Amino acid sequence: MSPRRWRSTVLGALAALAATYPVTSLFTSTEWFPQVVVFTALTATVGLVLRGITRSRLTVLAAQVLVVGYVVVWRFSQDQQAWYLPETWDGLGALVAEAYDTIQRYSAPAPLTPGVTFCLVVIGAALAITVDAMAATWHAPAAAGLPLLTAYLITAANGSEALEPRYFVPPVVIWLAMLHTTERGRFRRWSTTSSVGEEDTGVDGSVGVQEHAREAQRSFSGGAVRLGLVGLVLALVVPVVVPHLPPRYLAEGLGRSVGPGGAGTVGFNDTLDLTQSLKDTDQTPVLRYSTTGPRPPLRVFATATYTSHGEWVAQGRDASAGAASPLPPAADRKDYTMTVRENTLRPPRVAAPYPVVGVSMDGVPWRRDPSTGDIRVARPVSTYRVTYADVAPLPSQLEQAGPPDGAEVGPEDLAIPEAARRTVISWSDQVTAGKTTELDKAIAIQDHLRDTSIYTYSLDLGKQPRDQQGRPLDPITSFRLTRRGYCTQFATAMIMLARAQGIPARLAVGFLPGEQEGQEYVVRASDAHAWPELYFNGFGWLRFEPTPGARSGAPPPYTVVASGPGATGGGQQAPEPGQSSAPAQTGRPGLDQPDVVAPVLTPWDEIRAAVTVRNVLFVVGLLVALLAVFVMPLTAATVRRRRRHRAANRQDLVEADWDALTAHLRDLGIDPPEGGTLRTWRDRLIRDGHLDSAGAGAVHRVTATLERSRYDRPERTTPEQTAALHDDIRSIRRNVGRTRAWSVRLRAFLWPEAGVSVWRRLTNRFTGGGGDGG
């Protein structure tokens, strides 16, 4: 097998891996990449073997697709197989659906789910097959740059920031090396197309031609390297001086874009993921405002719909399905005015305190959502003014509100996801033990979640817990176990715990009040926040604040002091000496001992889980089968390499190459004539090998060099001639092989006489048989 074919195959595999590696920056884990390495190596191996057997390019490509595709399917459908074939395709379809759902819901870096792993491995394997087919099978490495560039651009377009040069330089360098290897081989063939007569004119003339060829090759290589370096430098320098486009995200949670005139804009989409959204630390200003009253959070939208995938979806009810929440009585609220300018929040969203009494948009059409009270606009608005109510009901009034039964409450305001229902109900019963009214229960839940001795505020959620079968737990149960999160987790937990007690609850999303700058306040993208709203008769939806920490601010006054039967005594007031802020332990599992046991699997646990008897037997069987199939070709290649390595002089090297050629020709069915001369053997090879003029020229050069080596002075055989002979022999092997049937080529590859004779001699040595068997 020619070194150029090896180089093209290996470089193609490395280029595919180098172009795939940047995708690791889009996900939280790189556990999928080693699998891509394995399938890329399998692709290269299959292509390398088949290209040595058949000239049919489509056959090579089809075999790669079938072999690699089968192993991929086997790898991801092990639980649904019969006779090592997929028993059903539903499992693979579910993996694709899971990957699509993850990509739609998460911004980069997205979590690595089994579905995402499956799709990434399939994409990596497809890229490896495509690059190998273009670079090695069709000898068109320039075309292979297109899929390599596509893989890189997918990463660059979905990342939150510009990719580092280490992601860009390796695939470019390897691609340029592929170009150089292929084109240099073609150039070399052009430079060795001298006629048979020119090669046979003598040593001086032959060496002169070869010297010119080497000089031309060096010039070609030097120019290619310089051109590649210039292009690489320009690719690294130009992006530094040219403004780049804003990033596109896998899915927006809180995304940025560039609006007219280069002004930055910020917008929320209609989904809020429980494990990724609202983690932005960007300091981009969203708006500036001044107000005549207190500074509550600025709400953008509210939603009561929580999906089984762990996300909140903004789906307001139609006007016919529910009434707008009424404003609290005038005696229980005070109205203030907020003036906003330099607003960059994208329509249809605007930020405003809740509840809104009146709006002035300076001619911009707007409407109020009938069920949530959100304000929406038809086009961008930079300046607007809102009148809002500061609701301050007395705890005694809320105590007397009674069970919620308003027309604005719907079934979704009390819904609990089935995946977490058992955990939520048990958890809520423990937290609200001994409380009798809705307000006391709500305050108990808020106090519990704000207790920093139990929960930790952190943007880093850590590794997602799994159940005893190794499956990821739902986000609510995960938070119950890890006890760490940020506003989204705390708000969701309070909503579900309140719903478990029959209190309607929903999620509000918006911004914290911001920081003061002069006479105004500035709200930035990093101020994105989420909090729960609970419904109380006569007062509508009221804000609670379960997120601990000074940044989220103090809870509203009506959630701190309660009175009446079962009162909590003030929510955040210090406990009595010797008492803990956590509820007393009972016979049931305590708050610090969740009733869901889900050990976090370590990498070692995952490795041990993968090392099953079935997997080990399969891997061992596969290795044994591969060894059995390729033992003879490997033995023959080893014998040839060792004989060339042991050659004491150039004459021995020429003889080693000639013997290797004649052995291969015998495998292809062309035997040397009995008692014939070297030139008789030459003529038979040209005739029976059906060689064209170029092939015949190579045979003439080989036999001329062999005659010179055998019958002339040793010093007349030059290193250039031995190198040319080695190249010509490879060309003869390739050209003769193209004239044989595929079955003959397959047998010659898998059962070469040079390898078989070695094993025969070994067998005879151990069994005491005579002879070497040929």
Key features of this structure:
six-stranded antiparallel sheet, 21 strands, elongated, 48% helix, 22 helices, 774 residues, four-stranded antiparallel sheet, alpha+beta, 12% strand, single chain
What would you note in describing this structure?
- With 774 residues, this protein is an alpha+beta fold.
- It is 48% helix and 12% strand.
- It has 22 helices and 21 strands.
- Strands 11-14-10-6-19-18 form a 6-stranded antiparallel beta sheet, with no helix packed on it. The chain has a 4-stranded antiparallel beta sheet with strand order 7-17-20-21. The chain has a 3-stranded antiparallel beta sheet with strand order 5-9-8, with no helix packed on it.
- Strand 3 and strand 4 form a beta hairpin.
- Helix 2 runs antiparallel to helix 3 (57-76), helix 2 (33-51) packs parallel to helix 5 and helix 5 runs antiparallel to helix 6 (141-158).
- It is elongated and about 120 Å long.
- The chain starts with a helix and ends in a 7-residue tail after the last helix.
- Residues 191-207, 240-265, 316-323 and 562-601 have low confidence and may be disordered.
